[in-house]
Amino acid sequence: MILSEGVWTEVDGGNGTFQAVDPSTGERIETAYPVCSWADLDRMAVASAAAVGHPANRDPERIARFLEAYADRLDTRREAIATMAHRETGLPLEPRLRVIEFDRMLGQLRQAAVAARDVGPDSWRTPIIDEATGIHSDRGPLGGAVLVIGPNNFPLAFHGVSGGDFASAIAAGNPVIAKGHPLHPGTGAMLAACAAEAAADAELHPATVQFFHHCDPEDGLRLIAHPTIAAVGFTGSRAAGLALKAAADAAGKPSFLEMSSVNPVFALPGAVTGDAAGIGEAWAGSILMGAGQFCTKPGILIAVGGDSRPLLDAAIATCESAAAGILFSAEATRELESGITAMIEAGADVHCGGNAASPGSRFEPTLLSVDASRFLERFEVLAAERFGPVGLFVAASDVDEAITIAGRLEGQLTVTMYTGDGDDDAWDRLAAVLRSRCGRLLENKMPTGVAVVPSMVHGGPYPATGHPGFTAVGMPTSIGRFSMARCWDGVANARLPEWLR
Per-residue pLDDT tens for 357-401? Predict the structure, then answer.
């Protein structure tokens, strides 16, 4: 069933059903979920139009109450939702899902409620009152529904019906049509049920939150062009993101896409000399986190100058002592095996791992290495993102060679530099190249964790995202993506929003 206009509704049928698979065992989970037809999607899109500008949905206080009530309802079902997410993704129940990610999901929703309620001069609405000209301006909802498509790797905090994109779009006053992920449909259904109940309690329009599990790709692209859809929020692969972007561009719709990033780490000469083992252990630990399925996984480490072998040895030892990680699907293990084969053919050496494991969709922690000259020769293959517990160590002879590598990098979510004694000049020279190639620049810490604070930038130049000017994390900054600039020229005060009077 799908959530359409506040009611769980049977789909038209004809497109079949699918089942999730427990990636820790490889066994199918019993419940079947529907694949929507175009008629189902069209019905939700048409219904969303009535929610746009509905009196209840124009009330910041009511929107805030919905977001808070939603968070509260989710919290009452924490155990059941986290357990379902664990079964469908293989991610650790404790503390990853039940505590860390669940708390992040609730925190984002509650922060979005605070932002929705805020109509002050410093809010995301950016109200400007120009008495001299009689011109007033602010930011407000887009005038259509936001289609939110979540990823496989964060089944709660980035989910299409509960994650940051959802919270941001709702806080801005937009209805949302959320697409679940076919790898964790049971989790999505539980989240959407809580959202529907909270929306009803807040007396928002019933089409404010709608939800479906899956559809044929061509129908999903067609949905973007629907007149009632105003924008798209997406987190996932580069291939899927670019297809969505092409459809949105063709329809004249804004799209906010988080796609791919290798998040390179540069260990500068002073750092390599000072704490090679510590950096190697930290790097390997970051690669292993979530079985290497974080968008901020530092997939490549460039060690600059000197004898950097102790750094690599420490990383190898950490990986060799770790168990095979559970990937989200058998397809993910096949793609990783294919990618590692391509890296080996391009000249990389394997030091540990490199193979799928059983039961289920498991993969050995894997480290490869290559020298900088070979890395630059086969850059397209060796610098590609590998989604899983895999890292590539690159030995650069000096800072000049590291700068050459930096100049070849695509846009990244993050870039990290580890520094030590005597590295000030190297930092300055590399930062001059790297600063415009990433959203977040870090020093002496791995990038895997992402703080949900207003100062965070979880974005970056293409292909990390589709546009370098936004962040997908942090309230209220992330809300601006799903708002439009509005100007009121000579309009009587009584007709203006309260924050412009």
Answer: 999 999 999 999 999 999 999 999 999 999 999 999 999 999 999
Q: Is 481 in contact with 232 (CB distance < 8 Å)? A: no
Question: Which residues are paired to 179 by β-bridges?
Answer: 149, 212
Q: State the Cα–Cα distance between residues 23 and 358, nearest whole angstrom.
A: 10
* pLDDT, tens digit, 9 for 90 and up, residues 158-216: 999 999 999 999 999 999 999 999 999 999 999 999 999 999 999 999 999 999 999 99
| C-alpha closest to that of 112 among 50, 69, 159 | 69
pTM here is 0.95
* CATH of range 265-443; options 3.40.640.10, 3.30.420.140, 3.40.50.2000, 3.40.309.10: 3.40.309.10
Question: Interhelix angle for 238-251 vs 217-224, to 10°?
Answer: 40
CATH class, 32-259+465-500 region: alpha beta
Beta-bridged to residue 465, according to DSSP, are: 258
Give bridge partners of residue 371 from the DSSP assignment: 395
- Report domain extents, the chain: 32-259+465-500, 265-443
User: pLDDT tens-digit profile of 202-214?
Assistant: 999 999 999 999 9
**Tokens for 211?**
């939800």
Whole-angstrom distance, CA of residue 478 vs CA of residue 142: 15
Angstrom CA distances, 274 to 163, 231, 306, 444, stand at 40, 49, 11, 12
301's tokens: 């480490």
Q: Strand 7-9 relative to strand 2-4: parallel, antiparallel, unpaired?
A: antiparallel
d(CA 162, CA 159): 5
What residues are annotated to the active site? 258, 295
Mean pLDDT value of segment 303-309: 92
Measured CA to CA, the distance from residue 340 to residue 345 in angstroms comes to 9
